[in-house]
Amino acid sequence: MKFIPLLTLGFLLFVKPATAQTQPIGLIETPKGKIYIQLFDETPNHKESFIALADAGYWDSLTFNRVIPNFVAQGGCPDTEDGFTDPAFLLDPEFVRGITHVYGAVGAGRDNNPEKLSARCQFYIVQNKNGLHRLDGDYTVFGQVIKGMDVVDKIVFEKRDETDAPITPVTLKVKIIKLSKSEIEKLVKS
To answer: Digits of tens for pLDDT over the chain (190 positions)?
Structure first.
């Protein structure tokens, strides 16, 4: 009987404490700085798609290909038929009451299809300080910039050509980092 308490104590010494729960945060690295994005659980398919493409390095050879002051910084696949017609790149819309096109909202690009299917290879960040609520209910918002809107502001004011593409390409490197709630709070405050 004396061994049981010792064994129990020994077992407890080897049990690791529960780790803090973390959340996936999108990190976009550009020549202008870093942009951190909180991804919404309320839009699970868009969140999962963004994570999968980031983990695959999909955007790492692409750029912000459309930048318009007081509108958006859009990155990802260029406006090509593949991005809008290939079923592997399309997602059903996930419109959520209360998740709207506010300053810093991250949404999924799409063409003018009647089903409002998202092109999962394209995303945009709302740069208009008043938001772009005319897009609500037509384009899925799946995240929010929590740090780095100063970087987005720099990107949209780059000199651009007649197609609204920056003359000097603004490259992307997108990855997912895992942060605890306290780490997110610290990041937002820094």
So the answer is: 444 444 444 444 444 444 569 999 999 999 999 999 999 999 999 999 999 999 999 999 999 999 999 999 999 876 555 555 667 779 999 999 999 999 999 999 988 889 999 998 999 999 999 999 999 999 999 999 999 999 999 999 999 999 999 999 999 999 999 999 999 999 999 8
- Domains of the chain: residue spans and CATH: 23-189 (2.40.100.10)
CB 97 within 8 A of CB 34: no
CA distance 132 to 130: 7
Tell me the C-alpha distance between 27 and 147, whole Å. Answer: 10
How many whole angstroms from its chain centre is CA 128? 17
Query: Is residue 95 a contact partner of residue 142, using CB atoms and an 8 Å limit?
Result: no
What global pTM score does this model have? 0.86
CB atoms within 10 A of CB 98: 5
Helices (H), 95-145: none
Q: What are the backbone dihedrals phi and psi of residue 71, each rounded to the nearest 5 degrees, phi first? A: -135, -95
